[in-house]
Amino acid sequence: MNVLFIEDDPMNRRVVADMLDVAGARLAEAENAEIGLRMIDAHDYDMALVDLRMPGMDGISAIREIRARNDAKANLPIIVVTADTAIDLRERCLEAGANEVLFKPVAMDALFEAMGRILAGRGDDVIL
Amino acid sequence: MKRWLLILAVTVTAALARPPSAHAQSAPPASLSQVEDRIASARAVMMTDPARAVVEAEAARSGARRLKGGQARIDLATATWLSGEAYVRNNQLPLGRQRIEEALALARKAAAGSKLNGDVLLSRGNYRALTADVAGALADFQAAFAIYRKINETRSEAITLLTIATLHLDANDFKSGLKYVDQALQIYQGDPQLMVSLHNNRGDMLRELGRYAEAEAEFDKALDLAHRMNSDALILPILRNIARNELAENKLAEAGRVIDEALLVSRRLDNPAERTKVLGVAAQLHLQRRELGVARALIEEAFSGNIARDDTQFWQAQKTAYEIYHALGDDKKALEHLEALKKLDDETAKLAASTNNALMTARFDFANQELKISRLQEDEAKRKLEYERSRVRTQQAIFIGVGVTAIGVVAMLAFGIVTLRRSRNEVRAANIDLASTNEALGRALAAKTEFLATTSHEIRTPLNGILGMTQVMLADRKLDPQVRDRIGVVHGAGISMRALVDDILDVAKMETGNLTVERAPLDLPEMLRDVSRLWEDQARSKGVAFDLDLSAAPGRIESDPARLRQVVFNLLSNALKFTPSGRISLTAGATGAAPDERLRIVVRDTGIGIPAEKLDLIFESFRQADAGTTRQFGGTGLGLAICRNIARALGGDVTVESVVGEGAAFTVEVPLVRLPAAEAAPVAGADEPSLMIVDRNPISRAMLKTLIAARLPDVRVAGSVEEAQAAIAAGWVSRAVMDEGTARAQDDVEGAIRALSGVPLTLLWTQPGEEDQALFSRMGVDQLVVKPITGSALVEKIISARPVIKQYIASDAA
Fold this sequence. Notes:
The structure holds two protein chains of two kinds.
Chain A lengths: L1 E5 L3 H13 L3 E5 L2 H10 L4 E4 L8 H9 L10 E5 L6 H8 L3 E4 L4 H13 L8
Parallel strand pairs in A: 1-2, 1-3, 3-4, 4-5
Helix pairs in contact in A: 2-3
Chain B lengths: L1 H15 L15 H14 L4 H16 L4 H20 L3 H19 L3 H16 L3 H17 L3 H17 L3 H14 L4 H17 L3 H18 L2 H17 L3 H18 L2 H17 L3 H11 L12 H14 L2 H49 L5 H32 L5 H10 L2 H41 L6 H31 L8 E4 H19 L1 E6 L6 E4 L1 H17 L4 E10 L6 E8 L21 H7 L5 H11 L3 E7 L3 E9 L18 E5 L3 H12 L5 E4 L2 H9 L3 E7 H6 L3 H7 L5 E6 L3 H9 L4 E5 L3 H10 L6 E2 L6
Parallel strand pairs in B: 2-4, 8-9, 8-10, 10-11, 11-12, 12-13
Antiparallel strand pairs in B: 1-3, 4-5, 5-7, 6-7
Helix pairs in contact in B: 1-8, 1-10, 2-3, 2-4, 3-4, 4-5, 4-6, 5-6, 6-7, 6-8, 7-8, 7-20, 8-9, 8-10, 8-17, 9-10, 10-11, 10-12, 11-12, 12-13, 12-14, 13-14, 14-15, 14-16, 15-16, 16-17, 17-18, 17-20, 18-20, 20-21, 21-25, 22-23, 23-25
């Protein structure tokens, strides 16, 4: 499984890369939203993880851009991974089109659980 | 307090009254317009018949709940707010609070920053002021004011300022009160009812400050408006105020004329309490004229009515009575009234002191917070660009905020000491634009919240590194046990730190009035059992017994599941922390009868206990009974403050009883809303074995679980063959589903299959060869599903195999 992580903090990228390694998934990394969007153009990912606070375009705008696409990639499963705990943040992310919101520090079980759940939700598209 | 209520009543009438509309219907409203009719009815009867207003608002609520769309959500918030107001007016305070809190959450969701949002905040502030939570009230008023200002609702701004003014009036801080009233008058000059209230209050404060001539001018303006509105209920208190003002200046003839008019109005009005007060003023007039006989007759008449004599609104009348009897030499009667007066004096002094204290504290807390912010901000100064920007913003706000605080303190000192230089100080004070001060206060509060959010963010990020890596390391099955143990310690410390950051964030939310609660169905016994499970083990390992008594617990209820759980969790954590030996018990039950039925959860321990004088202290943030406690037992002292705030937000409270050395009992009481039991879902109990997914890959495990759980009631998972084997041995499994990768992770596939041979087995395999198939057949594998296959096809196959039917499905991948 190929996962893209859009996140400016290298340590957070490393942590999630190691976590996904436990589950046998590969992580591609983008250090900002602009790069992330270009990588989505160029490659096929099974899922994207997106941080919210980044220099340049923020995570919510990036999610909106992905959802506004005209191709199948508009349905890319997206999980927000954030250290922000502002009120209603979760609702705002879901409204923008995220499938799930996880708060840092991320529990590994919760990450896998969310990934599995979202992938299962794609019905006939799920290939095992 | 009565004075406060009176002013409140006037302002809130102004805020709520709308022309009455559609007559009350009995059927529940089914359309938006019907819901809005009921809302209008609730508004119309709010002042005259709050019980009826409750019925109307509740009907609108249940109607709005069933409707969809933005307007329905706004109507739901409005109806909930009105219901809360009506409950408060009807003296059902806990229900009122619960509704107002709900309304606030709804308003924030449906229309954050709207007038409605401001109105609900104002209501909550009023409620908080009524229950002596002055600091909370002030925060709400500030927040409401900020909203009104943003949307340019000048009338509501004026009401809010008047409300803040009355808070200062309660604190006997007439000068600050006056400033707020003045500012309200500058902003808004419309609604006559509000204008009456503003002028009357302004006069009241001026009189208290000894500025009688100015006071009289204000009362005259109020009276003029009240006459034009032809409202005896408004005219009478103003006439009384004028009379008292004249008496204070010893203008007896003028006072006499006003009192005659007031007596006339009071006869028309037929209100015993008002009549007592007017007669009291009349008696005072005759006392000042030294006509003691008449004075005595009047004061006797004043107290002959059916009134509650110990009410603070009769303070003035009691004082007059004492002076009359004292002048007459009737010591027995004089003493009687003196004692009553003393009692009322104590009460008002206590109220003034506590209100004043709270206002002072609110300001000083604020100052301290700002200092802390600036210090910490400096340490962190060289961070990222965005962070730099927010720092500059914060410092601007701090600069203004510190200015505001200084002004507040100066104003207070000036009031206490520098009476001679009063006029000069006032000129200076008048030059300060209170609107901008208010805005600055709001900005500084926002800066504090932003600071806490930023700090929390900054701590969470490194914590993510620590906890992330410990989790990755602990996931390695081949880890050396000693190393695993050490990493476990690091992991545990990280978890504690995360809890701490969460607690601090909760406290920040409470301080800014942003702690909101939700309403959702909750299986209470299930939740309590679940929370207990976490602490039972820890208690056992400490040698402390743990009792859980749910025999009287309600089943399904409506509450905030996560928040209620947090309360019980914190109380149990607390109990265990302070109980070295003995037992801890958790009991749940109900008290009272519907609709005032309450849920009661008690956590009892046999720990060190809390000294009586510290019982109140332990609910404050960062406070434990004893500074040594922190060193000995750890903890931040935030848990109980959070518990109390949550319980109050839910419309209840947490209380404690304790004997030092014997233990403590914490009791949570919140309004109980019972729900009908859930339809018997076909949930497999412990006695019905379930399907088990054996997959070592956590992502595909979760995926399979979600897919199958949508069709089968109870699905278990195992991450390894060993884990699955244990569950099978325990009789929990009726069928196992194993993935190829998991089987191959064992040294031999055969061994893995054999380990699960106790139950029918489904194998998921990619392109099995002929000898593979022969092996599975020989080993009695019940079902073979060939990958790749779509999720839904896989689930169909597994479900169709669920009754134990031998079938091989080869090479029919979708």
